[in-house]
Amino acid sequence: MSITDTGSAVENVRIFLNGAEIKRRMVLDAEEGKNTAVFDGLPQDVRPESINASVEGGGTLLSADFEVDSFKESFVSEELKDLLERLDKVKDAIKEEKSKLDLLASEEKFLDRNMKIGGRDGFTTDGLKDIENYYKQRKEEISSSRIKVEKKLEDLQKDKERMTREAGAFPADVVRYAGRITVEFYAKTKGKAEVTVSYYVNSAWWRPFHEIRMSEINAPVTLSMKGSIVQNTGEDWNGVNVKLSTGNPMLGNEQPTLRPWYIDLVIPQRQMVMAKAAPVMSRSKELIEEDEVAYMEKTAECYTETPAAEVLEHHTTMEFALPVPLDIPSSNKPSKAEISKHVLEAEFFYYCASKLDTDAFLIAKIKGWESLNLLSGEISIFQSNEYVGKTQLDPATMEDSMEISLGRDKGIIVTRERGNCISGKGMIGKNKKALREWIITVRNTRGKGVLIKLVDQVPVSANSAVIVETLEISGAEHEKETGILKWSLNIPSGGSVKKTVKYEVTYPKNGTIYLD
Question: What is the separation of C-alpha 116 from the centre of its chain, rounded to a whole number of angstroms?
């Protein structure tokens, strides 16, 4: 007995970072003895070694084999459908114009028959003249109408012939390829049997991404982890149970083995090498902003919000079982699903590295993230439901708290200017001296006080002949190994703070240093 799958659908999918495992089920009326169940119309890229089949209901599995088959099927493209619809309209218009010609011909015959009334009693000479004038006028109108209808009919016939030729150029059918899994099993008795197959395909994947939303400073933030899913299996997944796995079966499972590392002397060869510098590609601010807009449009498509997913931890991977079935079309357009959402307390402060960038960045410091099962990926940042940018989240590099930059705040104004106490290169004996002074001003124009962490630096000598003397750091915390200066400043609304960085560098007169 052979039963071909004509109605089974995808029930469960486990989507990996590369590839997916798909599970299908078929219930059939099995006969006593050997039975064959055929799952047809599957993706071409099924990996045969991944096929797993089972039979429930008193059956014993004998084999499960995969093959790719080709077949012809009628296919009408959207372009052809539109052409055929227009052709039908032209045919209807031709019928309508032919009916008009028939009506004009009938009216003309009627007029000709009734003009044979001359000489009858009851008509005066004036009456006959009126009838003749009407007959002549109407005959002219009918002739003019016939010419117009025949011209329109001629144009319609040309359109019909052209569209018929175009429609004939489309193929009547196309050759398609599809996979097929044939399951053979033995049933001891006649009855219902449930055959289940699962298989791995390459044409699906998912990627984690995140969103962080805040309404105002010092209020809790909402951190969501989501999945962007793409599948190109050739069939839509409707109402499927989805698990998103951090595994990647395509990486292979063989552990690496070190081999002996042999080294030998190499005698250099004299040769001329012409070096060509690679061009430096830069991207304008407009292009970056266009990318951000495109990203927003992309993440807004096919979005599905779900309750929190169940987290399943395995020996080497983690899975997120989404709580409701999803519809995922076969397309290059990503489908979005929410995995988890957390409302978290956060500490807010501003950060500015004034030597590199005088903009102040708003930072959210979030604790307790370790238990959230976050994955590496992009974070889109929203303030009061407005997109302000994105950054990267990498849990492997975070410590006990997670600090996320929420963007630049122009309400905190920072300037870094040269001070008056700046000399060039003074000469003392065999050495030169260079003096530098920088004035850093921070002004808060916001309606409330803010905490800002300001950082700058003084140089660090990498040569015993070069001596750096720090003269003024305005109470900064000074990391002498790195030269980094740190201030933690509480600035009230409308207030401002000035900090001075002043240092002197002594170095040999035959040397050169770069301080600016």
Answer: 82
- Domain assignment present for residue 271? The answer is no
Mean pLDDT of 169-187: 79
Instruction: Please say whether the beta carbons of 211 and 382 come within 8 A.
Output: yes
Same domain, 70 and 83: no
47 — phi, psi (to 5°)?
-85, 115
Are 105 and 208 in the same domain? no
Query: pTM score, two decimals?
Result: 0.61
Which of 412, 440, 457 marks a domain boundary? 412
- Same domain, yes or no: 349 and 384: yes
- Give the domain range for residue 87: 78-170
What is the tens place of the pLDDT at every residue in 320-377? 999 999 999 988 889 999 998 988 888 899 999 999 999 999 998 887 777 788 888 8
Q: Quick check: is 351 in a domain?
A: yes
Three-class secondary structure of residue 201 per DSSP: strand
Q: How far apart are CA 28 and CA 1, in angstroms?
A: 11
Q: Give the dihedral sign, CA 282/285/290/291.
A: positive
CA separation, residue 53 to residues 36, 46, 61, 240, 245 (Å): 13, 14, 8, 19, 21
Same domain, 370 and 430: no
Integer Cα distance of 300 and 296 in angstroms: 6
Residue 15 has pLDDT above 60, yes or no: yes
Element (H, E) at 177: strand 173-187
Task: Quote the tokens at residue 271.
Answer: 């040769």
Length of the chain, in residues: 516
In a domain, 275, yes or no: no
Write the secondary structure of 478-500 as one string of H (helix), E (strand) and C (coil): EECCCCEEEEEEEECCCCEEEEE
Same domain, 345 and 391: yes
